[in-house]
Structures are given as C-alpha cells and as structure tokens.
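Thanks for the sequence, V.! I ran TetR/AcrR family transcriptional regulator right away. Repeating your input here for the record:
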Amino acid sequence: MGAEGQQSGQWADVTPDAARRLVTAAVEAFAERGYHATTTRDIAGRAGMSPAALYIHYKTKEELLYRISIVGHRLALDILRRARDSAGGPADRLSEAVRSFVRWHAEHHTTARVVQYELGALAEEHYAEIVALRRDTDAAVRAIVEDGVAAGEFDTPDVPGTTLAVLSLCIDVARWFNAEGKRTPDEVGELYADLALRMVGYAKK
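Predicted structure:
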C-alpha cells in the first residue's frame, strides 16, 4: 500500500480489512492510471487478492470509485463546515476554511485527485449524490463570504463567482502537490489562506 493510504485514518470506517485494502489499492490505481485504464485485476493485485475476492466486497469497479468519492467528499465538507461554524470573524473563518481544505488536499493528494477528477465515471445516481455534496461544499464557503460582505469586511461584488474561484484554487492543489517538493501542506495552506483573503477584497483594519 502507498504511504498515504497507510498513514491516514480516512478509510477507518471501511470494514472489513479486506474491503479497506481494496479501497486503498483502488485509490492508488485510479490516481496512477486513471479510472478507465484501471482494471479490477489491477486493483485486486495491489491489494494482494484475487480478482474474484474483489467482487465479494464490491460488485463493480464503479462501486469502488463511489465509495472513495463519497468518503472523500464528506471529509472535505466536514472540514469546511467546522470552519464555517467556528468562532471568530469572517476573515478568520475563511482563513481556517481555506487553510484546512488545502492542507487536506495536499496531505491526501492521491485520494483527492481521484475524488475531484474522476467524477465523470460515476453512475448517474452516484454522480447526483456527489454533486449534492459539492453544492453543500460551495454553500459552506459561500456563507462565510456572505458574512464578510454583510459585515463590511469583504469587498466582492460577485459572491458565487468568488466562492467558486476560491474552491477551485484549493482543489487544484491535489493535481500538482508533490510530497517531495519545496512546500509542506501547512505552508501551502498558509499561502492560499492569504490569497483567498485577497480574492474577497479583505482589508485589515
């Protein structure tokens, strides 16, 4: 298994152990090869299992992708909702939201890459469920920006567009982040938190 899958507790709720091993193997395979180029044999092999064993836990390859997507999106949404509901003014809450969201995408960039960029492979009903979670994600950040505008702390005439820009900036970290690179997840989070405040027109008082 990859270090990311072993070290994080993001799949702790996936049981039994064999099912969890298959999920972490699928994350690695999808991130490396893409969903469509990955076979169930690839996934089973990475998990040290036979292809037949995979079907005991997941009926299809798409079901594996759905499980990864739903867990990842729920984790990301929880991060943003905690920041939205935290103490402090809009600037503090937006900074925390972006800092935490970016850090998650950097620390779990392999998982995040699958979660954010393989949506098109989901079945229609699964896709609809994930899109609803993404709307909730947008709403959590938009609520903070709206609070900042109402309080006179933020100067942005287009709250929906700015919210989308902030989220897009954060999510893109999963595409380029390299654990061997010059910046740590915390450093990227701090940088992006500052950029987000600039994007909403925050002026320190």
